[in-house]
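Milestone 3.1: sequence recovery, worked example.
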């Protein structure tokens, strides 16, 4: 049996970019706000197009550096698709 859903993880120390809202209320990576993951994290890959080679992912609060977190239960950050590990 083959499962379609797999666990996607990102390792501690992976660089990410915080989201900003731009044209038509779309999310874009903010190149001035680079952060790192504070610990290994399970992520949800969002079905959005790549933007400048970066993939949008949703991660629970507490897994990225505290100065980069948004107010809420989860954050949308942008990472390189090569840093996503599938298990």
């Amino acid at each position: 049996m083959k499962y379609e859903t797999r666990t996607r993880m990102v390792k501690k120390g992976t660089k990410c970019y915080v989201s900003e809202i731009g044209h038509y209320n779309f999310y874009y990576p903010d190149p001035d706000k680079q952060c790192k993951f504070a610990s290994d994290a399970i992520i949800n890959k969002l079905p959005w197009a790549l933007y400048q080679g970066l993939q949008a992912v949703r991660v629970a609060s507490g897994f990225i550096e505290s100065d980069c977190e948004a107010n809420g239960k989860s954050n949308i950050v942008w990472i390189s698709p090569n840093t996503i590990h599938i298990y």
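The mean pLDDT is 90. Residues 8-86 form one domain.
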